[in-house]
């Protein structure tokens, strides 16, 4: 039986075919995305470098397989199947969860399989059929069309195949950690909304964005990490059933600070923008002080993460990362602890659900109910910002609903009104901002920022006062925790802070620039339920603590400090070093040390810090918590 004669492409023909096929596969992968291909191509026409950045990784993968199988069409078939399968998976994930596919998802294949049963998925049958059909066509072409042998005889066998494949992969890997890793390049492209990641993927192209994500949002494996050791920490004994039946409401107010208490301001009692906070600090049923938050003038979601989980954002990586972008599994949090005690749990935020990926993250944190701006009714605005006053109404209504249902409530709200920028038009043209009394002279630019910011602080303080008044009148026991997420952004290079003389303070860079006020207050019913004086004294809370310890402290105050080994550990660590911020630790006696200073940190604290890092890594990478 005669074999059919296979047509052989010359080397230049194979290379030409590889380029053309890579371009075709890239177009097919883009066609598989949720948005129309013509809209993507219109972006590419305006920014032609995106054509190269999307086609290049596809071409290199194709070249690797072409070398391995010594057939450009077989290489194209495998590449087409893999790249388009990823593209279709990206489309499905965006449609189901409003989040694109990231490289780190490969580490979660088991969780993905389990999660698919939780969703109603509409598969793009037409796209799948086209991809399968073109893959089959390429395989067929590979059967009938081959390639001529490589010119160098010694490279015509498996050695040449493996070397060609390895070289292609090495070039791709090098590009990923250099060109594709460049944030400057990535941020240089114009997009409709840089903060909405699915939209960025759709506009800049899936292959390019996928490659860029290989080096974003890193989580470093701690030195000496042992999974079995972390599992042993998780299985340590715990004490459950000791929690006191009080409602807990936590409000993280955007850019809330006591900046106006600094000596540069000259407020009196009659015009004090923080009158309610100051009154509450003197309340016998209140604990107050300062939180050291993860970021300066930004990073709201990182503070949420630190407070709710006890995992510290700044310890996740030696480089900058975003905590909500590294979460991709169920995590232990305050929501889960209170839920285990039979509480109703909820989270409110008057912003978009996709921002910081909150829609998915709060499900992973265990919040029973979430409410974002698009679901809020009769919203009240000040300028274009949802008001703190409106949010206080939502919070009290949420508590009333829980009481009516016979449930205890754990609730967390992140506000938005006092978000930057602090420009004269923040609340609309012609809005009159009260003057800011200063003991120093500042530029008109700085004075405008201070006036606008102080107006937001005044409204935030009014929200605090309104919540306290409402809960004071309640017969239900309520604990209110109120704090800021970070200091305000007052111009480039800390312009406003320089003008106020704050940057000259000795500990400004290490600590003070990260401090926001907090207050924990109980109404009369909650104070009685908790035996406030004894509980507050036992809590042993210093004036300043890291945000990562706040949630654990609230659990301890309400009798739940020992309900999980994790939060019990955090409360114990807080008593040794209440502040851990990057390379600075504040010990219980108030002294400041740095882990970088050899011998400065007690061995026991060094061991605890290592345990904290390793345990956090375990939770983010391995711990399995059922829905």
Structure in a nutshell:
The protein contains 24 helices and 15 strands. The chain is of the alpha/beta class and 627 residues long.
Structural overview:
The chain is of the alpha/beta class and 627 residues long. Helix content is 47%, strand content 11%. β5 (344-349), α16 (358-364) and β6 (369-372) form a beta-alpha-beta unit. The longest helix has 29 residues, at 444-472. The mean pLDDT is 92.
Question: What is the strand and helix layout of this fold?
Answer:
Blueprint: E1 7-9, H1 11-31, H2 37-46, H3 49-69, H4 72-97, H5 109-116, H6 125-144, E2 145-147, H7 158-176, H8 183-188, H9 197-204, H10 206-212, H11 227-234, E3 247-253, H12 275-281, E4 286-292, H13 300-309, H14 323-326, H15 334-340, E5 344-349, H16 358-364, E6 369-372, E7 381-382, E8 385-386, H17 388-404, E9 409-414, H18 444-472, E10 478-484, H19 495-499, E11 515-522, H20 524-530, H21 532-539, E12 544-546, H22 547-557, H23 565-576, E13 579-581, E14 584-586, E15 592-593, H24 603-621
Parallel strand pairs: 1-2, 3-9, 3-10, 4-12, 5-6, 5-9
Antiparallel strand pairs: 4-11, 7-8, 10-11, 13-14, 14-15
The total of helices stands at 24
Radius of gyration, CA atoms, in whole angstroms: 28 Å
Q: Name the helicity range.
A: 40-55%
Structural class: alpha/beta
Largest sheet: 8 strands, mixed
Beta-strand residue percentage: 5-15%
Write down the overall mean pLDDT: 92
State the low-pLDDT regions, or none: none
Give the termini distance in whole angstroms.
62 Å
Number of strands: 15
- Report strand order across the widest sheet: 6-5-9-3-10-11-4-12
